[in-house]
Amino acid sequence: QVQLVESGGGSVQSRGSLRLSCAHSIYTYGRYCMAWFRQAPGKEREGVATIDTDGSTSYADSVKGRFTISQDNAKNTLYLQMNSLKPEDTAMYYCAAAYDYCSGSPIMPRDFGYWGQGTQVTVSS
Known about the structure:
single chain; mainly beta; seven-stranded mixed beta sheet; four-stranded antiparallel beta sheet
């Protein structure tokens, strides 16, 4: 059974930084795509970034240049480094995975079958 557990969320001021982690049990010796999503109250779930088997990444336009997705397969952990945070980045952040190629932009929730429970990020102005 695949498990994804996020951590690292919290409250920061605008222009601050946070690093989210996702400990997972994804089999990383085959084809896969892992992603970060976020969902603010009253809004749809938004794809933030993806990374695939060979380390190729993609980002939503809203976070390009500020967020970096990375992975450490020796530790079975996915990361999201978030810099220059803005109040509009406030949301619940979710880790997701699929045994398939990443499909590019936009990053769609329907392409992922495994989800974590989320970690809250709150950015104050």
